[in-house]
Structures are given as C-alpha cells and as structure tokens.
C-alpha cells in the first residue's frame, strides 16, 4: 500500500506540468487537453529543437498540426532498436520532405503487400504537371553511320507476321508486365528517328528522280528539235 502511494505521488509529480497545462483530464488512462482556439498550443516537447502540437483553424475546419519551432526539424519514426523506418524533414528555407530509408517501400491507396521490384505502389491515377524520368541512354545511335536500318520491305514483312513494330513489345507483353516509361520513350524515339531516315531516303530518291525526269525532258526537247529541223530540211530539198 505504501509503495502504491509513493507511485501515485511520483506519477502526479511527473505529469503535473501536463495536467496543469490541460484544462480538464480524466482518470481513465487517457489524457484530455481541452485548450481550444486557432494556433492554440496543446502539447509541447521542450527538446533542443522543440516540436509542438497545435490546433489549426476552428470549428468544422479545426485540425491538429505538428509544428517545429525552429527553421529545420527532423521527425523520425523508428523501430524498437532505433532504426529509422520513415521520417519527415521540415524546413522554412527548403522543401518539406517525407522519406523512407533504403530498403523501405511506400503504398498509396492500397494495403497490398506485393510490391514486386517497385519501391512505390499506387492503386489509382497520379496527377502531375511534370515528371522527370532519369535514363542512362538515349536513341541517338540511330543516326550513327553504321546503324543497321532495316529495309522497308523487311519491316513490312515483320509487321505482317508479328502484328507490331520491331523492337516494340506486343500487347500481351504490355498487359502482363506493364511499361518502363524511360525505356519505352527511348524505343519510340528510336522509331521516330528511323522514320526520319526513311523519309530522308525517300526525299533523296524523289530528288534524284526529279533530276532524271528533268534531264530526260531536256533530251526529249533536243530530239524533238532535231526531228523538226530534219523534217524541214527534207521539205526544203523537195
């Protein structure tokens, strides 16, 4: 009984700052802090770089805000051994960042545990104004001098047999495995550059044919002129 009394006294001493700070509390194992008002500080952790829980807005728009009291602050979620599982980095001079350490994964809109080789799994659409896909290669090799550009007849035969372009995955592969955006963009650019080469080849052939037609037209005009002169000379001789 004496030990129990000492424990209660110690508990009251330990939590008296919180109880004094709160306006109401119950003895059911839950601490109730009933201070209200926009930006009202409900609970403050007075560590070297303090955090505080505050109310944001009022009425139906009221919410709980975790606010750092210095410019840069790091909030970590750890396991029992102190290893960081996730964290928030808050700064007034740079971007706010949520991060997951190496080996961690993030799921949005799903509780599925299957990630495959992905670090981020989203069940639903993603809206963005700009997405940058980093790549270690690009398709400019098409314009190299020794690039093996397939003849159009060979491409036509491939399409007739397989139902898709060479080097491009078919519908079955895409529906099964999805698409690698960076890799697919490079392949599509490869096809655009190949199409450019085909167009340049056709342009060269058309230009050569135009020159040949012009030359033949000039030759025909000369032959016509010679025939007219020959006919005229024979007519004069008669």
In short:
40% of the residues lie in helices and 17% in strands.
Structure description:
- The protein has 238 residues and is of the alpha+beta class.
- Helix content is 40%, strand content 17%.
- It is built from four helices and eight strands, in the order H-E-E-E-E-E-E-E-E-H-H-H.
- Strands 1-2-3 form a three-stranded antiparallel β-sheet, with no helix packed on it. It has a three-stranded antiparallel β-sheet with strand order 4-5-6, with no helix packed on it. It has a two-stranded parallel sheet with strand order 7-8.
- A hairpin with a 5-residue loop joins strand 4 and strand 5.
- The N and C termini lie far apart (154 Å).
- The N terminus is likely disordered.
Output the helix-strand order: HEEEEEEEEHHH
| Secondary structural class | alpha+beta
Give the CA-based shape: elongated
Share in β-strands: 15-25%
Count of extended strands: 8
Average pLDDT figure: 78
Number of helices: 4
Summarize the main sheet. 3 strands, antiparallel
Strand order of the largest sheet: 1-2-3
Rg (C-alpha, Å)? 39 Å
Oligomer: single chain
Report how far apart the termini are.
Answer: 154 Å
Helix share bin: 25-40%
